[in-house]
Amino acid sequence: MSLLTIDFLETIFKQEKETSLSGKWIRFKDIKNLFKKYEDVFNVTQIGSSEQETPIYQLKIGSGKKKILLWSQMHGNESTGTRALFDLFNCFLNSTKEELKSVLENCTLVFIPMLNPDGAEVYTRVNGNNIDLNRDAVDRKAKESKLLRSVLEDFNPQFCFNLHDQRTIFNVENTKNTATISFLAPSEEVTRALTTGRKETMNVIIAMNAMLQNVIPNHVGRYTDEFYPTATGDNFQKLGYNTILIESGHYPEDYIREESRKYTFFSILQGIYYIAKNTDFTSYKDYFLIPNNDKAFYDIIHRYSDSKNDIAYQFKDEVIMDNLVSTLVKIEEESLKNKFGLHEIVFES
């Protein structure tokens, strides 16, 4: 199946992790000076600007016939994929490993590491005009949506990687395990038909999941494939561009998502390596062996002897005086009987 070993992935991640990037709040000012160090190895270009005129950059590398487009932070407050991409850039910049050489010989890679810098600046999902770019694939009202579509059509990739973060509420179905990484082969229409493109997308996800099961077994979920008519992945898949959605989720005690960052990096590198090494993407059935995501978690639950009085809380992130602050918000729910807390505090009556 062309799987990378965990020893290889652990070693190269430790060597090449971009240490200047950490924490959940990653803004354009955090990455703008990093582009310079890649210019000798990558083709680095400003391809446009955001609604508020912040530059949007693209990095291109490789000489192979297989084309792969990857983008991150189309939601400004979802930066785990961005950090993982810069870790990957360092690998191509510094390493001569055969696995990486194989990728560059067989593939041409285009990266947009921060599609929504305006949202990133203020840590919001939406862009500078309050538009959710992941629900703007049809109307394309936002400059950033037009730019992404332009890159897509000009580059004409065989595969796309759409990188997101998911909330701490998600568990792997029928377990008490957090969904640290979740995958999706988006539907192309409401019946969720298994088209050729979806099957090919599922095939790559199977390889990424097989690798992850060797390092975080039973912490990988399958994101809902409900069809969203205006969503980016659904529309790109419908247009014939195989689109792999990676949702970086919670790992125990990892609220700043540094462990999730590592497993996102593992997933991306495994995915592009698998594409580089394979020509047959027809096998898809094992995709459905990946358990669904479920929503069984809250960040904190206060448990009482009378379970009717149990209280759940979720952290809410917001920018206050130029600092990202997490505050607990009480959740109104009738019963917490079948819910779990990432942390639970038991009060004796």
Instruction: Indicate the percent of residues in helices.
Output: 25-40%
Number of continuous helical runs? 9
**Strand order across the largest sheet:** 1-2-4-3-5-9-7-8
Q: Any idea of the CATH class of the largest domain?
A: Alpha Beta
Count of discrete structural domains: 2
Largest sheet: 8 strands, mixed
Number of strands: 14
Radius of gyration: 20 Å
Overall pLDDT metric: 97
**Helix-strand pattern:** HHEEEHHEHHEEEHEHEHEEEEE
- How does CATH name the architecture of the largest domain? 3-Layer(aba) Sandwich
User: Ends: how far apart?
Assistant: 55 Å
Strand fraction equals 25-35%
CATH topology of the largest domain: Aminopeptidase
Shape: globular
Q: Catalogue the unreliable spans.
A: none
| Relevant CATH superfamily of the largest domain | Zn peptidases
Blueprint (SSEs and pairs):
Layout: H1 6-16, H2 28-31, E1 43-49, E2 55-61, E3 66-71, H3 80-94, H4 98-106, E4 107-112, H5 117-122, H6 143-155, E5 159-165, E6 170-172, E7 181-184, H7 196-212, E8 220-222, H8 232-238, E9 242-248, H9 258-277, E10 293-295, E11 297-304, E12 311-320, E13 323-331, E14 340-347
Parallel strand pairs: 3-4, 3-5, 5-9, 7-8, 11-14
Antiparallel strand pairs: 1-2, 2-4, 6-10, 7-9, 11-12, 12-13
Helix pairs in contact: 1-3, 3-9, 4-9, 7-9
